[in-house]
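Following the same procedure, the fold was encoded as tokens, giving this record:
***
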Amino acid sequence: MGTPWSILWPKVRKLEERKDVGRALSPDEQDRLLSSLPMSESPFLPTIVRIALLTGMRSGEILSLTWNQVDFLNRVVTVGTAKTSCGTGRMIPMNEQLTGVFSAHRVWFDSEFGEPLPQHHLFPSGAPNPRDPSKQQHTARTWGTGRLF
């Protein structure tokens, strides 16, 4: 504890840290992804993918959203806890498309659970069907048959 890396393992080279941040999907890749969504057995995956494409949010940030973070009046989404301290609390403006995605999801939510409370999660836990809006869904990888992508 407290001993520098170079003293503990003088002959082991540290790996270079990746500096690339990935790449955006091409319009063709985005179209193919969106066209495959109707085949999903997940009640949430189409909404989650659209939110990710329109906001750049990580899946964990999306899955942890509560209704008090989606401000339809000011047309802004406030990110809760993020991977980095700079990302926590950031405000993302909602364009017409994103507003439409959240509005359609709100209609679904109302039909399943009634009027949401501010602390209710947009993506409630429960598999294969969501059951508890007070608890968040923790993964977008498994619903229904256990395979989404």
About this structure: Residues 96-113 form the longest helix (18 residues). Residues 143-149 have pLDDT under 50 and may be disordered.
